[in-house]
Amino acid sequence: GKEGENLRRDCFCSFVLDHDEGLKYLSSFQPFKVLATETITGKALEADIYNAIPTEKVDGTCCYVTTYKGQPYLWARLDRKPNKQAEKRFKRYLYSLEDCKEFVWNVKEDFKPVPDTWIPAKDIEFSDGNPLPDENGHMPGWVPVEKNSKQYCWHSSVVNYEAEIALALKHHADPGLLEISPVPLSEILEQTLELIGTNINANPYGLGSKKQPLHLLVPHGAFEIKNPPTLKQNDILSWFEGCSEGKVEGIVWHCHNGCLIKLHRHHLGLRWPLPDTYLNSQPVVISFNRTKYDCDFEPRSLFHHFSNLDGQRFDRLKDIKFDA
Description:
six-stranded antiparallel beta sheet; 324 residues; alpha+beta; five-stranded mixed beta sheet
């Protein structure tokens, strides 16, 4: 999952890329694997990683809530990417390893078109009024998720624009308990979240089924790690491999200056997904009081199904089933 609206290129280790989409893109160009070293980067130290809040990196797709058509809307991540000719030029540049020269993009001609509603991510740089690509050759951005969108149908399944709510997974007030509940979109305005579920990233958490797809939004930073490892490579390895809380995709350190520093299991040569994830080791309760909402939820919608499960508790997320 891609965490954080600021989408900074900050790293935990001297050889860790934290932007997964860029990682996939570069790996097709460059004949090496991205692995962590034992050295914490200057950027991470500058951001005061030692006093940052460590949180679980959730495996999904990044979303953003901001205003569209005068109301809070869910937006899907869409990176603007180079066309074939520009991609070839960029590949040649990367393989030539000419660090002395900077690659020059023609922003108006080198990139594939995007919908008119596309907006660039907040921290993207501009030149002459045009957004500039990052070091991976991408322009991170967003597109609004329309009510009956076919392309973003899993995104649209977790929002109801009539009631102005989204289905969110977060901690319950009781320790050790998760909660699925509707959240007003106005409460998560200008926040980024991770969409997880049946049809996202091969469903590492085992949610729903082909017959009954189940998707949820997880606000970024929602799952703080209670017993994090120290910032030493061996301790982090031991934590990932030796405790239930370490059965996660990775760690995202939320620094006080707004910087996000990420470490994926893959950066340490560890596998993901896992058969038993930490997220699936915790019980979950459904809190959905439908009398609060003066609209009828469509009978096949997740909102309808979850409202019928109000107050029910399940041992694990993957145990949630809707009545046929």
